[in-house]
Amino acid sequence: MTDGRTTGSARAFELLEPLVQAATVRVHAPPGGYDTPRSHRTGPTWGSGFFIAPGWVLTCAHVVGEGGAAVRLTGREVGITFSDGSITGTVTGRVECVLPERLEERRPGRHALWDLPDLALVRVLAPVSHACVWLTDRSRPRFDEVAYFGCTEDLGTPEITGRTTRLRGTAGNGAAIRLGDDDEIEPGMSGGPVVDLARGEVVGVLKARRQTGGGGLAVSVVQLRTLPMAARGQVGLYRRIMQAHDLYHYDQHLSDLDNRRTWTDVHGELPPQEGDPYAGRGRLTPGERTTLFGLLAELPPPGSSEVVRALVEEARGEEPDPLPPAPLSWRDGLGLLHDPPGGTAEAAAMLRYATDVSVAEYREPVTQGADEELWDWVRATAERLWRPLRRELGERHERGLAERERRRRASAGRAVHGPARRSGGLPPGASVLLEVWAHGWEDVYDWRVSVLAGPAHAGRVTPVDSGVRATLASLPEALRAPLAEGFRRCDTHEAAALLEVAVAPALFGLAVDEWVVVGGVPLGVQRPVVLRHPAGTNPAGTNPAGANPGGANPGGANPGGANPGGAGPGGAGPGGAREHPADREGTDASARWARVQAGPLQDERADCIRGRPRSPATEWLTGLPDNTVPVHCRAADQEPTLGSLHAVRDAGYGVVVTRRPPPDPGASCAPFHRGLREELADAGRAEVLPVRLQNLRGRAYGADPDAYWATGTGLVWEDPARPLPEEEPLQGDL
Q1: From CA 675, how far away is CA 710, in angstroms rounded?
Q2: Per-residue confidence at 635, pLDDT binned at 50, 70, 90?
Q3: Mind giving me the DSSP string for 14-71?
Q4: Strand locations in 499-649, DSSP E?
Q5: How many CB atoms sit inside 10 A of residue 423's CB?
Q6: Is 418 exposed, middle or buried (0-12, 13-18, 19+ CB in 10 A)?
Q7: Which of 639, 641, 650 is nearest to 592 (CA)?
Q8: For 135-148, b where at least 16 C-beta lie within 10 A, e where not — what string?
Q9: Is 400 helix (H, G, I), strand (E, B) or coil?
Q10: 251 φ, ψ (degrees, to nearest 5)
Q11: Which residues pair with 603 in a beta bridge?
Q12: Measured between alpha carbons, how far is 646 from 652 in angstroms, rounded to an integer?
């Protein structure tokens, strides 16, 4: 051992320390301070941070929150002091955003831990020359020796120092990393970088020390992927910053203007890892890896997270790690290719991935020659590897070019003869599925968030997160992070993904469309939100117009014979997906779905007549035209609406309108029915209703009085092309 470090890690620390110190900064009040604007004093240290890309500093939210709860975080100006060798400078930065976003409205008390991930991104307000760290591309860290750096005042003046310890585990569902107690974490070091000594990459942001004894917590830098998503048609902040990060190191690697060591140089000098099965030809060299990152950064970003995951699965030979956060950039895909299964060489997997990326469809026109340059590099790099791999990559590239050309020809044909998806319809790709089940007879609920692959892979589901025994009041907060992760995986640059809410009809009044997950805007304004009957519901066992099967307790009983998560008669279809009414003989569901999608639409009040409640008769419902949309204006957890919701599904209606009644029980439902009738007539066909309802919510949110009638409107959308998974959730420990 040497100073508490192994011989290998001691050498790694010596190599990495100058690079990390050059990029680590001291965070304090802006130059001049708030009280004396013309002063050049910087004041006391608030914490530390580090440059992750030119002009961008990463630190902790609680560091820039110095001054208490009254201080606004986003937009706040802070001081950044950095040193690169003999040059020391101070510059003003502005907080661009904090994670999680809710820290702006709710913060912990003094000396309490801030909510994870507790990150802040600071934009420097003047062009300055500075160093940047190398960020890991791995989704999860290895539990090896690390070094952490930050600002200390051991000798009476602020300076950046480093200590060493080991990673001891994770916390917060992987968002935080536990640090060992090998050395002390001092005040002022919060926000500094945590560096994996074996691989020479920053894996965390120092967050807190333990109150008793040594050790503490760091935030995984992978949490940067949870930065707010971009507006449609724009490149998100995360992708912009990671592109700048990779191009910075690529340029440093190619430059011969000075002799200072770069991160790529040091990566080549780090001591070899014992027992590495991919040593030698099995891994890309540091120079090859830096070049690959740079070439990928010069391409337009992927259209969605699912595009990255699909290419990783092809290159890796198995489905990648489904745990959050989702991969958002081409470089994130490389991070999922480390240590592939079955003894497959890591370098081979990365070259297969790069080949597929070179012939992928990009979200915008590619810079001329950038994709060809990537392929030329792949071909040249493969020369040092195995001859069969070179042949495989060449054939893979040819197939990819042919497939891309086929897609472009098909797209050009659609442009002439009309789009494949009519304007205003739902996005055809993956959707986010939220399932909520009543927990027996109690007023608590189990939940699950998943990604449905969409009609192209009907029935394929990828889990995101799940929970048990949540109250209705606690559901919005419990589901905030899982839903945000699902949206990151499914949203594309063209459209926000559909949110499908599968609940028992008694829960159709759950105000999911009003929940705020990211961006401070309700979900129903940000994206289409539709309701689904839960998996395992047995329409044949419903009681269309009888007494209240479940009472007024939302989801408390098993209304209408629904078996939450269980398989009722005719419930499960092929592949474990729930059978849709349209798939059963003896029903009109298939004809109704096709007819109502094409339009024109005809509305019909199902649970009221001129404002008075009524229970629809089965014969009446089955005799209505196929293009009818049944409309409900009363509370879904009460009769006659609850029975009517079961009855219309049993009659084969896949498109149904519901409403959360206004707080005033004496308010007339006539404006709602009048406005909905006009909307359905203007829409013309059902396939545009989810998006049109989203637009209506946006108008009401923007204080348009002509759209107020739509407040609380829900759309039941039983699309047979989107079957639900059949598996029921765990009910907790016995």
Answers
A1: 8
A2: very high
A3: HHHHHHHHHHEEEEESPTTTTT-TT-----SEEEEEEEEETTEEEE-HHHHTTT-TTS
A4: 499-502, 529-532, 602-605, 608-609, 612-613, 628-631
A5: 8
A6: exposed
A7: 650
A8: bbbbbebbeebbbb
A9: helix
A10: -65, -40
A11: 629
A12: 10
Reading the block at residue 293, the tokens are: 């990152």
Q: CA–CA separation, 622 vs 605, rounded Å?
A: 14
158/152 Cα distance (integer angstroms): 6
For residue 342, is it left (φ>0), alpha (ψ between -120 and 50) or beta? left
Identify the three-state secondary structure at position 320: coil
Q: What are phi and psi of 193, to 5 degrees?
A: -85, 150
* Neighbouring residues of 395: CB distance < 8 A, sequence distance ≥ 6: none
Taking residues 655-679, what's their average pLDDT?
94
- The string of pLDDT tens digits covering residues 461-518 is 889 999 999 999 999 999 999 999 999 999 988 889 999 999 999 999 999 999 999 8
Round to whole Å and give the CA distance between 82 and 91: 9
pLDDT higher than threshold 50 for residue 566 = no
Describe the crossing of helices 346-358 and 286-297 by its angle, rounded to 10 degrees: 20
Q: Residue 707 in contact with residue 696, Cβ under 8 Å?
A: yes
**pLDDT tens digits for range 269-278:** 999 877 666 6
Q: Is the pLDDT confidence value at 58 over 90? A: yes
Angle, alpha carbons 687-640-557 (nearest 5°):
90
Overall average pLDDT of the 395-410 stretch: 89
pLDDT (0 to 100) of residue 342: 65
pLDDT at 614: 93
Burial 307-337 (b: 16+ CB within 10 A, else e): bbbbbbeebbeeebeeebbbbbbbbbbbbbb
The pTM score is: 0.80
Q: Are 122 and 97 in contact (CB under 8 A)?
A: no
pLDDT in tens, 219-235: 999 999 999 876 655 56
The structure tokens listed for 442 are 């109690």
